[in-house]
């Protein structure tokens, strides 16, 4: 909105841009952000990798908003990035709590390095540009050496073999695909969900509502104000709805 740039150039048709769960409702009480961790003795090795991947993605997102936001001069941009950064911090807690806290540091290190190998291998296998593919291969080779060293440390300090916790072979590569129908399905069926303890409920509860009052203090948060400013400047909301109307009738754009 400030720089008159459009998101189409970033998402390149892989996803749409439309309202989801209002940002102001993302804040939850700390007790409602923690999930049930997987059991390190029975977990599917692929689930370990998924938990680490989504946690890393949320950590990177949090770092982006909290580091880039202060660079803006405009107060509305700084405030919006701060609001989203705080939410992403909650998301990091949400996903980090999936990891079994009983894992040793060496076990965590081996799993971390194994996951990096899995991701770089996935990127390399899907990359059509030979020059970029070579970069992924270079980093994969680095991570393979990191994994070898981590395995040696686990044997030395934990007295266990890494094979006890790792998958016997790399899972099928992680693929990057269009997510439009997947996201639309979530918007259609889960947009009104919130958490209560480690479970999910459809209706806001007292602890959730009390948290909203503490965070917002009765004022409209930056995420609501920036949308109002955009409507005032351009006469409509900013949306990319290439697959038709919003799946939630109440969230469809009104003239």
**Rg (CA only):** 21 Å
Order of helices and strands: HHHHHHEEHH
Strand order of the largest sheet: 1-2
Estimate what percentage of residues fall within beta strands.
Answer: under 5%
Average pLDDT level: 93
The helix fraction, in percent, is 40-55%
- Major sheet attributes: 2 strands, antiparallel
Structural shape:
globular
CA distance, first residue to last residue: 19 Å
Task: Output the structural class.
Answer: mainly alpha
Total strands: the figure is 2
Describe the structure.
With 255 residues, the protein is mostly helical. The chain is 53% helix and 2% strand. It contains 8 helices and 2 strands; from the N terminus they run ααααααββαα. It has helices at 8-11, 45-68, 75-96, 105-126, 130-158, 180-189, 206-216, 222-234; strands at 194-196, 199-201. It has a two-stranded antiparallel ribbon with strand order 1-2. Helix 2 (45-68) crosses helix 4 (105-126). The protein is globular, with a radius of gyration of 21 Å.
């Amino acid at each position: 909105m400030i720089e008159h740039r459009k998101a189409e150039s970033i998402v390149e048709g892989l996803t749409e841009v439309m309202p989801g769960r209002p940002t102001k409702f993302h804040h939850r009480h700390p007790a409602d952000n923690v999930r049930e961790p997987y059991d390190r003795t029975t977990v599917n090795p692929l689930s370990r990798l998924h938990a680490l991947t989504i946690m890393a993605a949320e950590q990177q997102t949090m770092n982006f908003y909290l580091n880039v936001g202060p660079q803006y001069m405009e107060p509305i941009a700084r405030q919006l990035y701060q609001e989203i950064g705080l939410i992403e911090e909650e998301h990091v807690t949400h996903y980090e709590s999936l990891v079994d806290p009983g894992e040793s540091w060496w076990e965590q290190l081996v799993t971390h390095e194994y996951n990096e190998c899995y991701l770089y291998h996935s990127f390399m296998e899907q990359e059509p540009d030979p020059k970029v593919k070579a970069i992924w291969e270079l980093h994969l080779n680095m991570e393979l050496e990191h994994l070898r060293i981590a395995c040696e440390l686990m044997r030395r300090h934990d007295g266990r073999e890494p094979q006890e916790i790792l998958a016997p072979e790399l899972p099928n590569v992680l693929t990057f695909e269009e997510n439009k129908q997947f996201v639309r399905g979530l918007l259609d069926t889960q947009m009104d969900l919130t958490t209560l303890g480690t479970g999910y409920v459809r209706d806001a509860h007292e602890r959730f509502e009390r948290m909203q009052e503490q965070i917002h203090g009765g004022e409209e948060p930056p995420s609501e104000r920036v949308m109002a400013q955009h409507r005032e400047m351009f006469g409509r909301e900013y949306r990319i709805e290439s697959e038709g109307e919003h799946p939630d009738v109440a969230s469809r754009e009104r003239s």
